[in-house]
Amino acid sequence: MMNTFLWSKNFLLSFIFLCKTSLAQDQGAVRLQDGPNSYEGRVEAFYNGKWLRVCYRKWDMNDANVVCRQLGFSGATSYYQGFTPRGGGAFALNNVNCRGKESSISDCSHDGWGKYNTYYCGVNSNSDAGVVCVAEDDGKIRLVDGATNSTGRVEIMFAKQWGRVCDKGWANVDGNVACKQLGFSGAWAAYTGWSQRGSGFFWLSDVNCHGKESKLAGCSHPRPADISSSYCQTSRNDDAGVLCKVDGDGALRIVPIGSKHQGRVEVFFSGNWRRVCDYQWDLNDAHVVCRQLGYKGAWRYGAGWTPRGSGSYYLHGVNCNGKESKLLDCYYNKIWTSHSNCRVSSNDDAAVTCKIDGDAAIRLVDGNGNYSGRVEIRYGGIWRRVCDRDWDINDAQVVCRQLGFGAAKSAHKGWSPRGSGSYWLTRLNCIGNEATLNSCNRPNTIGSSSTSYCHSDGGDDAGVVCDPSTVSPTRPSPVTQPPVVPSTKLQCKDTDAILCNAVKIGGHCNSSYGKKHCCESCPGCRDVSTGCVQVKQHGLCESSSMKKVCCKTCSQGSLIG
What we know:
Radius of gyration: 44 Å
Distance between the termini: 168 Å
Helix content: 10-25%
Strand content: 15-25%
Number of helices: 7
């Protein structure tokens, strides 16, 4: 009996000892509960053999750092006052006030174990303290839902979780820090309301970088628990985004129509070519584009270009002074943003016609030889019509002199046969002594004409008849439609038929129109009674009945027979 009593006594004493040892060992231990992983959660402390809650009253970053270090982490990245989901039951600690250097929460000052004010620490309210402990790769960022790896929605990692960055307060300086952290030289633009939006919670909001930070997490920002749900709604497009700088950004190209020197302008960013909107587009902008592409400048700018581009616009509101070397040196609105005047489904594209050698040359088409015809002029390597609105003899005089003739005989409106396509010039107002048609005054810019006066499908073409007897002794070889040299000798024949062989192959003038009309309208020939003028170097002048008269008056002719 005595042995049984002694064994029971010893067992009880051993049990009490073990319990006391366990209580002493676990008193003040902490753990994290109800977090997404082991780095984050609601703080609980072990007291009186139970895991109890820690009240958030006066809970701050110093307290969080001590808890995380006690758990074996290097510190904390954030803390919560009112962690969700809340705990249940009583609180172990309240009014914890650590200095930040303690090794355990038990070493911090507090109101005492198991003591708490129910006014601040209600057992049925979210009065729990929480922490986010430091993890590997904290502060790492990435771009999501962009067309390339240099653009997209910004996400940042803490506690081994990727979370969103709210666009509240997001600015270019913040975007620059983000892009530099990712290895780019900077950001072209920072965006708010990125689409497609992210899902889940936000790690950052109200980011306020100075620009010198090496990481976005190094910029000032509130803790996640203080992010405003009014501005940063998880179900809304409240995400921050960036367009980072890469090599080749700002390059330009012309999407040509009619000529590789004319067309719709596109600009390159982040591996993509996109449109340039014509909002506020003018000739100064066009000059800069053409010079950037290696031309001397632009003849004209185009707005509402057809055919239009597809997709979104990179640039709009471009405002160059004309002296810049690159389009990105000009003022422009934020890259890749929408504007009411730049609709993706409309012809709101900017265009240019660049200057090349040989431009502003003129030619005569569909006339009787090289001294009469419909006037056409070339810009950007493209020949187009000249409208006859306000066309007069002064304009014709300039045309004829530019082509090497001394004077014009007449100016014509509605030349037939008419041209096709659009017009380069209209409402010319030449004084008459200009060296080229391009240098004459005109109220309209190149390529701009009223469809009320200059119908593309109407006979509104300007024409001239130059005086071939007044050839300039220094006449240049006109940059015109190359003349077709006849296979037979150009000659004036004083015969009953009065046939004058024209420059065009197979072309001729019949005497039924009258001798004078016939020979005046054939290049190089006039009525043989007054002699014939040979314009071309390779021609011969021949007259069986008036050989002497004819060839005396043909400066380039040769006596035959």
